[in-house]
Design brief:
six-stranded mixed β-sheet, alpha+beta, seven-stranded mixed β-sheet, Nucleotidyltransferase, domain 5, 523 residues
């Protein structure tokens, strides 16, 4: 029998701008990792695409290099790797050929807004308008979700229509595409998705955890192109030949935000915010489906086994968070690396009255305005690039506050977990949380503490936990016993005066209102 130190779990973390593979030991410590960026395609204003084949290659490279690094560090990974977990950018949609294995179009990314006319048409035609499917799937009609992206592909790509007619088409989000290829592709690859990713398509019934037939009929989506839905923690299949690892079971799969919830060990009443390309705040509502009355999404948290109870969540999704920092770097050249923004923004004590709202492709929760566009207001001759940089950081934190305010209103009757001082603790993770100034601004604008774990890459860890749980490496008690984690976490406490906080929030709301109805501005 292998010693505990010889047991490892791998985690594929496929994000919006890069792929990673991380190998963890039995004590949840990373022992080898590699990350690779891939191309972002912007064919038109508001359109965002990925090349699915390039994503596959990036995952393959990451697996090989992470294995090499762990082996070079003296770990017997070849014999000790017992399971693979997978986590991915959600909602991103593609259709491929079952017989050739080739994508029939680039993947349409979650933040892509090309489907706004489809959404408007559905809102007008359906009796329930924008909220027609909310009771079934928990989601409003929005450009964000996979169903409308799939409709666009069916309406606009001849190869997709023909492939569906020939019954050769397979639909999937990125998890489905990866698993199909990892388990054999055209040679018997498994066409599956998990409950968390399926919950983001607009097509899954939140209560039955199966594809909703009336929704499919209403939208004209053929059931035969959809994958089988499985839980987040079970053996799905084994990795086939042609990959750096073979024969190892894939036994965990979650959408990235659900994986981060598990990595943060969020129990009922606890919330986390992940700061990446976008920002995503989820509150675990336990085994109860809570419908939001304040602009949030009702979604799945996780289901840790075929027979395990289903945990649900309220979610607030923010389209542009870290992506605004990338915009400063790549489009404006104000900074040359994302890390520079903290130093630049720290050169000033405030934004000097500048407010920046990054509604590049509209606004998600809690506003849901796809007619919004970005604004930067309050600019004077005094304004410097440091003020702009600080306003960009504040924009991330204001958006998170908007979502948490809605979350508190929705959860007030259901209960939130607070500490002994009556404070609601927000757990944070994701690459941007290394920025101490950002975290301090977040605590100041919330007026409550922000807790950053020692390991901020909780998304990959959550996928590893799900995979390890399925094969007996960890128990649920071990995963959710967060006492040790809290001891090693960094907590940011608010220092901003209440009066100033209120004034800043009022100014922010004024700035947000200025973004509405700008989508038709002439180019």
């Amino acid at each position: 029998m292998a010693k505990a130190e010889d047991v490892f779990v791998g985690s594929i973390d496929q994000g919006t701008t890069s792929s990673r593979f991380i190998i963890y030991d039995r004590h949840s410590r990373p022992i080898g990792s590699h990350q690779a960026e891939f191309t972002q395609f912007y064919p038109e204003a508001g359109w965002v695409e990925h090349d699915p084949v390039e994503i596959l290659e990036s995952v393959k490279v990451c697996m090989a290099k992470a294995l090499d690094k762990a082996t070079a560090a003296g770990y017997n990974v070849d014999n000790g790797l017992k399971a693979i977990g997978l986590t991915n950018q959600r909602e991103t949609t593609l259709v491929w050929s079952k017989s050739t294995g080739f994508p029939l179009h680039h993947a349409i990314v979650w933040m892509d807004a090309r489907t706004s006319s489809i959404c408007r048409k559905l809102e007008k035609e359906l009796s329930g308008g924008r909220t027609h499917f909310v009771d079934t799937c928990g989601l409003p009609i929005s450009t964000y979700f996979s169903a409308v992206k799939l409709i666009w592909l069916m309406e606009n790509v001849e190869a997709v229509r023909e492939s569906i007619k020939k019954e050769d088409a397979l639909f999937g989000t990125i998890d489905t595409w990866l698993i199909w290829n990892l388990t054999g592709g055209v040679n018997g690859g498994l066409h599956v998705t998990d409950v968390s990713n399926a919950s983001r398509t607009m097509l899954m019934n939140l209560k039955t955890l199966d594809w909703d037939k009336p929704t499919l009929e209403t939208l004209g989506i053929p059931a035969q192109i959809l994958p089988k839905i499985v839980s987040n923690s079970e053996v799905i299949g084994k990795i086939s030949q042609g990959w750096p690892i073979t024969g190892v079971p894939i036994s965990g799969c979650l959408g990235d935000q659900h994986a981060a919830m598990l990595g943060q060990a969020c129990r009922k009443g606890e919330a986390k915010s992940t700061y990446g390309t976008g920002a995503f705040i989820l509150l675990n509502t336990g085994e109860e489906v809570v419908q939001s009355k304040h602009g949030l999404l009702t979604t799945l948290a996780f289901k840790l086994g075929p027979d395990a109870p289903t945990n649900y969540a309220l979610e607030g999704s923010i389209a542009i968070a870290g992506a605004a920092v990338q915009w400063l770097r790549d489009s404006l050249g104000i900074i040359s690396s994302a890390q520079e923004i903290e130093k630049l923004a720290s050169q000033v004590q405030s934004t000097g009255g500048v407010y920046f709202v990054p509604a590049f492709n509209g606004l998600f929760a809690p506003w849901w305005r796809d007619d919004a566009r970005g604004v930067c207001i309050g600019i004077t001759r005094f304004t410097s690039k440091a003020h702009i940089a600080r306003a960009v950081l504040e924009s991330m934190c204001f958006q998170v506050k908007d979502v948490l305010d809605s979350m508190h209103k929705d959860a007030v009757e259901k209960g939130e977990v607070k500490n002994e001082k009556g404070e609601f603790l927000l757990r944070v993770d994701g690459g941007a949380t290394v920025n101490n100034l950002l975290m301090q601004i977040q605590a100041d604008l919330l007026g409550s503490p922000v807790v950053r774990p020692a390991d901020i890459e909780t998304t990959a860890l959550g996928a590893a936990y799900a995979a390890g749980l399925a094969v007996g490496i960890w128990s649920k008690d071990e995963i959710f016993d967060s006492g040790e984690r809290v001891k090693s976490a960094t907590t940011f406490y608010p220092v901003l005066e209440e009066e100033l906080r209120k004034k800043k929030v009022e100014s922010w709301c004024k700035a947000v209102s200025r973004t509405f109805d700008l989508a038709d501005l002439s180019l």
